[in-house]
Every structure is written in structure tokens, then in C-alpha cells.
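Here comes my example:
=====
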Amino acid sequence: MVKMGVIAYDNCYLSSLSGPMDAFQVANAYSCRQLGPSGTQFSWNTVSITGEPVKTSGGISIATDMSIANADVFDLIYLPAFPYQGALAMDKMAEELRPLLDWLVVQWKRGATLVTICTGGFLMAETGLLDGREATTTWWLEKQFHKRYPNVKLNSRAMITEQDRLMCAGAMTSYQNMAVHLIERYATADLAIQCAKAMLIDTSVSAQSPYQNLLMDEASGDPVVAKAQYWLQNHAKENIDQAELAQKMGVSQRTLIRRFKAELDLTPLNYLQNIRIETAKQLLENTTLPLIEVTEHVGYTDISSFSRLFKQRTGLTPAAYRQRFKAKEA
């Protein structure tokens, strides 16, 4: 039997805390139905720093089974997510949870596998254990994570990463994907499939990239870059040359590229491509335009080249993206 410690702390998301336990309860029910009472695969206890109840971000109080000082030895330790409120709030939270973070390091060194999802990745990174290792987090906090933890090999496109008994999953509801992954890992693939079907978990989703907004948080404080962004957004369908764009902005091409990279970690051409991809997403979601017309509308003439770029950035072909995200008619 796999023994799990589920960490509870003030201001964590309730669904992130309880969701995996629900999935393991379903797994145990199916396993016991097949194998009898001895078929239980997972057990868990809730753990907090002091053993006292904690209040989740939604204001619901949760009782816990034990403190970190009195905790058992666990095979898995699961760390839920929380509402990210900026760098200063993260500093304060890391300081308040330092006893817990230090305890996690000790447990990992003793052989436990540490598991987290979404913003819980920030807390796992605070332990220092992710330095030099691959990890993921919620896609919309990619830049904040990379800035705070530059030594972590962040892969925000991934739904789940795993290295050296450190497992991370992507945005909010990825606890479902993580739970199925753990059931498969520690029980059987057949049991994981049964649970996924029972809980309506789409196991075909293996990446966050289809959900990412490629233009999120891209406003620049650099006046030249901001001016170029505005110009590109209003001329995205045109055939744009970087040298010509630089001339319009009153700087050299080399300077424009350097300033774009410094501000957005993108070249002007990459930024233009992202504008076009996001425009295409909207058309695929909200219209029935044929792909050739979508392609032309966003400034491309070669449907094959556009489709390759679209799949490279989103992980899906345009047709697959439309099938998954097309708005339902009222």
C-alpha cells in the first residue's frame, strides 16, 4: 500500500487539497471491488505545520491528522496549490512556511517522492530541490517563476514533469492528471483508466501549450518595444521585415532585437508570430471559416507552413484546436 501525506496550509486551494484524495478513494473502491478488502492501494493523512486546522483560500476550515513533528514516514508527499498574489506575498509565504519547506527536504532525503501542482511548484522550488531539475507550473505564471527560480529547468508546456522523485503538474485542475498518473505508477494502468473514465478525466491532454495565451503579460515598459508592439498588433496581416520595422521605430535592427529579447525574451518576428497564432485561435474558436481563409486572414499564404507553426506553438493542429475549443452555439 502506498502511504501518502497530504500537506494542508493556510490559504491553499480546497479543490487542490481534496481533489487527489477523492481520486485515490475512487481507485481504492475499484481495487477492492476486484480484489476484496486487501485491494486497498492508497492511504493518506493530512499534515500541517502545527497539526491544527487550516483555513483554505475559500474560507473553509480543514482539520488535519498530524503535525510535521509527529508525521509518519510517507512514500508520497503531496503539496497543493494556492492563489499567487505577487512576489512580495510569495516572500512572506515562503518565510511563514519555512518549517514545512525544511521538513519536505528532510523527507525527500529519506526517500519520499514529493508531488505538487500549479502554484505549489513555487513552494517546491523554495526548498531548493528543483535547482538544476526539470519542473512545470501553471502556464500563466511562467515568467514570474523563471525570474524567481532561474536555476530550475522550467518546462511550462508540460502537463507533468518528473525527475529524481520530484513531480510537478501544470495549472489548477492538473491535480486530476497527476492523480491518474500516480494511480498508474503505483497501482496499474488498467486501474488508472477505470478511474479516469469514472471521473471524466481526459487523459489525452498531455501538455499545457494548447491553453496558453501567447500574448499574456507582454506589455513592455521599454518605449521602443511598446511602440513596436502596438505597430505590429495593428499591422499583423502585412508582410513585415524586421529591418523595416526597426527603421520605423528609429533604431537599428540589432538594437530592436536586443531590446525585444531583454523585455519579452522574444524577437520581433516571434512576437508577430504569436499575434498571428492568437488571432487564428479566436477565428478557429468563434467562426466556421475554412482553414485556408483563417491562414490568409492572419497574414500567411502557405497553409502548410502556418499549420506547422501553429502546432509548434500550441501542440495541436488547427483542426484539432478547433475541435477542442470551438465555442458552442447558443
User: Anything to note?
Assistant: The CA atoms of residues 2 and 42 lie 5 Å apart. The chain has two domains: 2-211, 223-325. The radius of gyration is 23 Å. DSSP finds 14 helices and eleven strands in the chain.
